Amino acid sequence: MTKYDKLKNTLEKRFKELEHQKQNEEEFETTELSNYDNHPADNATDLTDQHTRLALNRHFDEEMVDIEKALAAIEEGTYGKCTECGEEIPLARLEAVPTALTCVEHAHQQVNEDIRPVEESILNSTTDQPVEDEDDRLRDYSNSFEVLEEVGSSDTPQDKQ
After folding, report:
1. Where are the zinc fingers (dksA C4-type) (predicted)?
2. Burial grade of 94 (CB within 10 A; 0-12, 13-18, 19 or more)
3. What's the average model confidence in pLDDT over 20-24?
4. Residues 5-12: what's their mean pLDDT?
């Protein structure tokens, strides 16, 4: 019995749970047969439910692939060693994340730019620095709130005192 048998059992159990979950999933159902007399909020609820199920299925598929890789590493005898540097992965990390194949230092924790809103590439989180326009002019946004407030706000005269 190796020190990774408990982790192997945990991985196999989780894999079976995911398989069972995928096999017993209901088809996407709508609440009505026709959208003609359906309230838009009901359609939105159905659409949200479909997106949630699709996202969960994608997550389950990715988790199953990670489990298969970890189980293959156990069979090959490479489990517990970082695939990047070859150092021993601490048992505490493997117990927390049984699918881990790298040490913490080599774990890929990058932000997936494909799923970030496109607006983030344009908007800055601060107005301290001017933004360069397409025509190479600099705009100073430091007082943009005050300019907008002059145009109009929902504040009453008492709020401005």
Report:
1. 82-106
2. buried
3. 83
4. 92
The tokens for 77 are 């005898």
**Homologous superfamily of 5-25+39-115:** DksA, coiled-coil domain (1.20.120.910)
Strand residue runs (E) in the chain = 131-132, 138-139
Of 59, 70, 75, 72, the closest CA to residue 95 belongs to 70
Distance between CA atoms of residues 81 and 106, nearest Å:
12
Q: Cα(84)–Cα(130) distance, rounded to whole angstroms?
A: 42
User: Is 57 in contact with 22 (CB distance < 8 Å)?
Assistant: yes
Token code pair at residue 142 = 């430091």
Strands 138-139 and 131-132: antiparallel
pLDDT single digits (tens) 121-140 = 666 655 555 555 555 555 55
